[in-house]
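Input sequence (275 aa), recorded before submission:
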Amino acid sequence: MAVPNLSEIVATTIENRSKTLADNVSKSHALLDRLEKRGKAKPADGGRRIMQEIEFAENGTFGWYSGYDTLNISPQEVFSAAEYDWKQCAVSVSISGLEELMNSGEEQFIDLLEGRIGNAERTMKNRMGAAVYGDGTADGGKSIGGLQLLIADTPTAGTVGGINRANWSFWRNVAFSGVTDGGGAVSTANIVDYMTRLWLQLVRGVEKPDLILADNKAGRGPLDDLLQTIDAVPDARELPMVLLAEADEVAESEARDVPAGDEPVRDASPEEEQR
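Predicted structure, token format:
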């Protein structure tokens, strides 16, 4: 039998609603969360630019002497600073008067404006989580400079914070290529040796790496041996956390992956950690 508009069921029965928004937007932000937990995310109140002061050299007047030897009293410049431009990002949230009217009263089971604000917050964190891996060139250079800028495949090239790495060796990170530096592509047979050789270059006194990032797109296997070696160390608390990174997403995981082929194994030098 024909009906003029809605069927009896539609006219007399409402849907069974969960009355909650299922989050299919949020991504994992292991690196971003790790930086926040380690106190590496520091608020700044203002200023023309963001400066990081640096002690970059020893005092060159040091010398052994005897009796009335002449001492070197020439002035020394051992301090400088890296400087960074402010970077801004925004997510807009809007609601019309009609939408606000319709989404009110007893008929409202989800606050539309509150839901949109939550979505905006998750969107911003997703984009920030991806940007910490970038090189700062996104959106015409308006994005923050992430790991691809700070930790270069070619440490002797590029400028970071106004300091040219080609001219100042203290500002260079360490890069290790399996083929070029190790003599063979990264594999299960050599990953522990390669990572150990890289690790030794990054230890300075009591300072040492506390985080390893590995490409989650590479085939599984090579990092297994490395993590089994780590697990065998009695005091595992002194060893770094391992995070697996995607191009736009990072997840802390128990999967064991590592860059394949001649992809460089990279980590930050102690100087890089200051930036």
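Checked by second reader. The longest strand covers residues 50-55.
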